[in-house]
Amino acid sequence: MSDRDCIxxxxxxxxRLQLRWAGFRKVRRQVCxxxxxxxxxxxxxxMRAYRTYLETHPDExxxxxxxxxxxxxxxxxxxxxxxxxxxxxxxxxxxALLRRDRxxxxxxxxxxxxxxxxxxLRLMWAFRLQRWFPDIGLGVVATDADANLLRRAERACYAxxxxxxxPPEWVDRGFSRQGALFGLRPELRSSxxxxxxxxxxxxxxxxxxxxxxxxxxLTYFDETLQRQVLxxxxxxxxxxxxxxxxxxxxxxxxxxxxxxxxxxxGIYERAxxx
Length: 274
Fold this sequence. Notes:
The chain is α/β, with parallel strands linked by helices. The chain has two domains: 3-67, no CATH class; 79-270, Rossmann fold, CATH 3.40.50.150. 43% of the residues lie in helices and 19% in strands. It is built from eleven helices and ten strands. The strands form two sheets. A seven-stranded mixed beta sheet has the order 6-2-1-7-8-10-9. The chain has a three-stranded antiparallel beta sheet with strand order 3-5-4. Strand 1 (104-110), helix 6 and strand 2 form a beta-alpha-beta unit. Helix 5 packs across helix 6 (116-129). The longest helix is centred in the N-terminal third of the chain and has 21 residues, at 79-99. It starts with a helix and ends with a strand. The mean pLDDT is 94.
């Protein structure tokens, strides 16, 4: 089975899942390995046989959709983004909360994988920001469509490679060594709530001051689905709230209710007129 055969299958199948080929070019080998393992289990030799299987077994599409979920996550991923959140964005949001007499900064990590992103927010708040805003608490909702990843997130045990971009002091203060793994201390898990939820069709009921939706919707979803999800993200933001997308992603050209704050870092605000 050649790489070309798998590429042809993905180009045919991805649009039916409202996914786009451009987002999968760099990760196609991982997807193709999963497909080949599935074909082996089914006793299929050629990609065209798997295509026929998809056409005659509608339930197989959900399995293929699962194969196309590529979690790439680590703590403090894209350091420049998190540094800017800590230096200007979250302090600005926190001061606005105090002016409105609110006492909790509400954040949503969409597509949280195994928890590194929402826990990074929690570590940042505990070790860098909370001393400046002692009257404010941090609440984080973290969602993902993969139950296995969420179970890993709730266990909060990570390999050293996942922590390599964190400040060493945060690792020392925030984790306990558990053999070859590092376990996040319980007091740092308490304000992160994990939920099984597919961003394609649902979002939390709450409204948030900060939403992180990076390297997911605007990388892998087709344009129609992007607009649908972005509309829901906008509606889940408080007035003046901030959306963070991947630093290499870009919003669609039409007006969807966001204003650039620092577009080179993927940081946008909910536009005041929406």
